[in-house]
């Protein structure tokens, strides 16, 4: 992500699109985009120069009730390329009654955000499929020359205890928003930052944290400061989790490589190797491939493969080794609705928004052979839209890729998807 941290994938009502503030764009991906998408005739329209809006409102409560059925989505024949709007509308709230049966054998990290309260319920219902659950609660900020950890008010002791009782590790996300110089220049401030985080974990009974800092700190050389890295890792690893009897875990959020040639500010294979001994995992953001200047699929499979190949290419790392198993491959449960005329607009949508569009426009879903994602086109008040949203088939393809590499999954985020997505996990 760019230096100004985006409120990632926070949804808005797509019909009609409201006036909005600009959302900070992701780094350009044009270096590999031409290879991935240019041959698709329909996508030529989609990939025209579009604007991208970002006023993202809270979704209202999901209006439909989860239903269970004896048969999974595989047994009902729903994991396919030629899926129809009618089938999705009829089946998306129905999940297998065997909620504890896992289809994906590796670790699964699920993010939950306060602005999509449905995620809290889904985390409890499907905790048997989720090894790690990360509520997006905390920010470490600068207040003049002081450090402040904000977000304690989000803590829900009953919810955390229930998840841990079901066997999931609760590892809240902490975003380092503090001005980097405040921490990097003074050893005492480094110790203060670590103490704030570790104390919160101990006081609240967490199993560790998910740390996000790369996007904001890359230009300050945070990974060139091994003292901060090792101090935090060692501090967490020295404390045992009350729920798991293991040390507290430290998972680091990393951006996916955007270009074939990495720049100095990109997270690369050498960075992964340098951090591996201090961390327990990497949450790899293989989503948000498309943006204001290059709208289209959220996570083209070739880009996902390119990201894994790049990060695991360093000497001493291999797909079959420990470093591959440390990666939580990013999977999006949200989608995007882009405008194809009037030159601007569009943004992130949730499953609720997607269902609304299917009900209203009854579009024909198309399977793009290049990105291996579904999309559809619709018109609203004379304005053409292109919608990219995950389906059971697109998710299944990416889970197969994760199995082949031996990686885990990280899902952004489970309050935004369709209910039957959980059957593939």
Can you characterise this structure?
- The protein has 425 residues and is α/β, with parallel strands linked by helices.
- It has helices at residues 30-37, 41-46, 85-91, 118-125, 157-165, 180-184, 187-204, 214-217, 226-237, 269-276, 301-311, 322-325, 351-361, 392-405, and strands at 67-69, 94-96, 108-112, 132-143, 146-150, 169-170, 173-176, 208-212, 249-255, 281-285, 327-332, 335-339, 346-349, 366-368, 373-380, 383-388, 408-412.
- Strands 3-4-7-8-9-10-11-17 form an 8-stranded parallel beta barrel, surrounded by 4 helices. Strands 13-12-16-15-14 form a 5-stranded antiparallel beta sheet, covered by helices on one side. A two-stranded parallel ribbon has the order 1-2.
- Strand 15 and strand 16 form a beta hairpin.
- Residues 1-9 and 11-63 have low confidence and may be disordered.
- Residues 14-28 have a biased composition (Pro residues).
- Its main location: other.
